[in-house]
Amino acid sequence: MAKIVYYYDTETSEYRRVYRNPWMAILKVMGVIVLSFTLAVGMMAFYLSYFELPSEIMLKNNIKDLEFHLTKLNGQLALLNDAVHAVEQRDDDVYRTVLGVDPIDKAVRNGGIGGVDRYQEIHESNSKYADTYVELYSKVDRLRRKLYIESKSQDELFQLAEDKQKLNASIPAIQPISNKQLTALASGFGMRIHPIYNVLKMHTGIDFGAPTGTPVYATADGVVVQADTAIVGYGFLMVVDHGYGYHTRYAHLSKFKRKVGDRVKRGEQIALVGNTGASTAPHLHYEVLLRGTHINPVHYFFNDLNPDDYEKIVALASVQNKSLGN
Prior knowledge:
The protein has six helices and 14 strands. The chain has about 325 residues and is an alpha+beta fold. It folds into three domains: about 5-50; about 55-170; about 185-315, Glucose Permease (Domain IIA). A hairpin with a 2-residue loop joins strand 13 (about 285-290) and strand 14. The radius of gyration is 49 Å and the shape is rod-shaped.
């Protein structure tokens, strides 16, 4: 029930009833609402100017966390890139130098990643961190390319090292008999007096004087391709194919210790010294051929001689004397 309100009229000295205008009441209510809303907005603005909403706090924390991890990832990428660069330096300056091959062109190692629109989707995302993402992806892609190139290089180096090891093992680099005192060398490579015809004749190998039955050793890894007992002049003859164009011949033997088809290792006994064929005394006639051309064997005795002994045996081999056989 609505409350009735009276007021005192001083002119008539009577109490009169107050009749309220409904519009005035509405205006008052609206005024209260407007005032309340204004106060609420003001208080909200005041609150927001000094305090953050939980969602804003969470968002800012997420952004800080993202920036922290981006910085950390960039640092780790820099460390990885330095490590890859160090491997590349060893690859070019050590491994390839040792193996005698040219280093990889820097333009190949530092080449970019193709595709002008490679990161277009990131750019079009309009993200605040688009440029940061693109830079990070670019670093990852460059590092991935460097690792790919280096992996291929390592495969190549492994193959080169394996080939180099096989090549080194195939070079006739030791003396064919035990000759530590350097007294067994009887005649060198070159023009020598033939022991039977007494004329100056090309001596295509070197002679080691040794008693019959002295062990003869393979001077490099290879395969026995010939072991004949009826070779004119050479007598019992063994030939070993070492690959890479190298062959060695062992003549005037008394006995074979290996047969045709056998694989032999450097330093492995393959025969015995003899006096067969055109020979004037027990000795080993030893030859080295490179792609069918006779080479002075003494220049290959670098695996079992020190520099002084090597110079001494070269000097002994240079003396023009009479050979002991063909």
